[in-house]
Specification:
327 residues; alpha/beta; six-stranded mixed beta sheet; 35% helix; globular
Length: 327
Amino acid sequence: MSSSSPETAAASQGVGGKDYCAFCEMTKQHATGCSRRLPKRIILVRHGESQGNLDMSAYSTTPDYRIPLTPRGVEQARAAGRGILDVVSSSSPEGSPDPNWKVYFYVSPYERTRATQRGIGAAFPRDRVIGAREECRVREQDFGNFQVEERMRAIKETRERFGRFFFRFPEGESAADVFDRVASFLESLWRDIDNGRLDQTTSCETNLVIVSHGLTSRVFMMKWFKWTVEQFERLNNFENCEFRVMQLGPGGEYSLLMHHTKEELESWGLSPEMITDQQWRASANRRSWAEECSSFIATFFDNWNDQPEDEDCQEEDDGGEIKSLEE
C-alpha cells in the first residue's frame, strides 16, 4: 500500500475519463495541485418579505408555493442584488475589482423566491450571468397544504417544545426531511462542479447564488459544515433577503469568516466551538481528513480512557505499591 498522503496522491481517472482528486472526493477540500475548479463563493439568500410573512392568514387561502412578495419584499430583493454585486465584483483585500467574476443562480420554485431572484438579477449585467436553474430540492419546508392560521400557531408552539429538527408537520416535512433533500442537491452540485457546468472559462471566478428559504439555508450550512442537530437548534433564522457568504479560503475550505465578522456569527447563534471551526476554515492551515471529520469530536464523548505515557511502564503490586515492569 502506498504511504503517500491523500494531498500528494496522483489524480485518478473519474467518470468519462476526467481526472479527479481523491482527497477532494473524500473531504470536499481543495488539495494543492488539484484541477477541480471550486466556486469562489457560495451565497445563500432568503427570499424577500412575502405576503405570508406579513399576514399568516394568507396561507389559508393561497398555496404556500404561490405566496407572492410584498412591495417591500421586491425592494429588498433589489437591494440584496446590489449588495451581492458588491461582494462578487471586489475580491481583493483592498476591494479592487475582479475583472473575471461570474455568477450562477440556483432558485427554489416558489413564487416568492423566483421573484426575489428576478430582483437580485436586475443588478447584474447579462454577460456576468453564466446561467440560472430552478432547483426543487432547495424549496421551503413543507408545512402541509392549506394552513389554517390558528391551527398552525398551535402546531408551531408544539414544534418549539419538541425541537425544530425532528418535528414533522402534519401532512408536511420535518427539518430532517429537508436535510435529506439538501444532501441530495449537494451531490448534484458537486457533479455540476466536476463536469464544468458552472464555468465558462478557466480564468473566471464563479460565484454560486442560492435563492431559497430560511430553514433550508440553515440546513444547507448544517450539512456543509457538519454541524450536529444540537448545533442546528441554536441557529437563528435569516432575515428577509439577508444573505450569508461562504467564501473559499487559502487552505481550500469554505468559511463564513472570510466575509462576515465573529460578531455576526454570534448573532446568528453559532457557538464558540462553531466559530473556532470557521476560523480554522478561513486560515491557510490544513488538517488531515481524519482531523477535519473530528471538528466537533468533543460533542460525542465525555471522557477518554487515556493512560499516562511514562518512560517506564508501571503497575501496582498486590500491596498497592507501584513497581516497574522492567524489574
